[in-house]
Sequence to fold (157 residues):
Amino acid sequence: MNVTTTYDQNVDESYRGVKAGLRARRRLWWSCSAVVLVGGIAELTLGQIPFGTAAVTFGVLFPLQFTVRAKRSIAKALRRVPGPMEVDFSEDKAVLRKPGSTSEVAWHRFVKLAETPEFFLLYVTKRIVVPVPKRAFTPAEVAELSAFLSAMPNYAS
Fold:
């Protein structure tokens, strides 16, 4: 197998890919924020105004800033290293290139490999995911990559 393609990255698509890749982590943050929010409302009803107000504020603002910060971080990264992304998938490694930057990672070094209907997700660590949009490949290449990745021991369905 040797599949190479080039695609332009954009903030919204990259954010959707990261969001899909970190779904469980996002669910945990949202759940914790909801618990803090409910606790803050309970504290307010019990008359604990300062603590209740702080908890409600945190419960509302934390998830919002989490989303805004993620998008800003992606936008900053795309501005710092502009240009198209070239990916080269071979039997033994994935190579990701941008002008002035190249990352070469053996398949077994990825913590996890996964896919969604829109992306191939390459997990460098539990918290760092590289989303590669399927739109960059032909349907035959998508099928070939899906079959290849699903045969890998670190593939998560």
